[in-house]
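Give me structure tokens for this 293-residue protein.
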Amino acid sequence: MVMSEGVAPPYLSRELEQPGKTRKGSTSSQRAGSRWGRRILTAFACLVYLYLFLPLINIIVFTFNDPAGRYNISWDGFTINNWLDPFKDQELTNAFIRSLEVAVLSISIALIMGSLVAIALARYRFTGSRGIEIFLVLPLTTPEIVLGASLYQLFLGRNVVFGFSTVVIAHVMFCVSFVALTVKARVRGFDWTLEDAAMDLGASPWRSFRKITFPLILPGIVAAALLSFALSLDDYIVTDFTKGEFTTFPIQVNNAFRVSFPPQVNVLATIVLIVSVLLLVLTSVRSEKGATR
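Here you go.
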């Protein structure tokens, strides 16, 4: 057979075309696999979100329930009366107010103590700093039953009167750790020479802290405050060991559930949830504005 110059024979042309077809088919299959992978990952993410938010959705939905009996656990009809009188149950309302008082005071003390500890650990290296960091983690890793029992024995052995003050002391103990670790993570890597430069330009140490350091750690402080608020308001085990005759919201809900479960529990919980979400949104917006300056 005589072949023209520069022209491949038919059988060789078909062989030369095969690798291109293989690569094209492989690329198409990879794209199809990638699309299916994204779909599976999206579906899995949706299931995770549903798993996380389903209890919250259930709480919000049942604020509009009109229970036929004493337990607000099955849907019996729609009503907005629960929102018109969220403080109908006086005992529950009083316990809720007491929990808010404990949470606010505990967070205020924990924010001051934890923020100062975090700044000291992040800015300075001194003997025992590593040990302090380890001790900060202990309240987070210690089971609540152990922490509550140890505090009960400590107070009882010193004839301390159980009540509001003992509950606050107990809540401050585990809130300080969350605050210190959260703020420390926020200030890690901060250039502390900026404060020195500001003071060299005539700023006082307080003004330097207020204008430079505090805006930096504020998002961490707010995040720690929200987390501590949720932990304090929600705590049952440690509170039960240290409360005496003092009753908080979780304790009252547990006691009330033995005889009834009023919809006001859902309403008060939803109010706390809404306030927390609003604070998170405001903090996020403030952080974004600060980052764009």
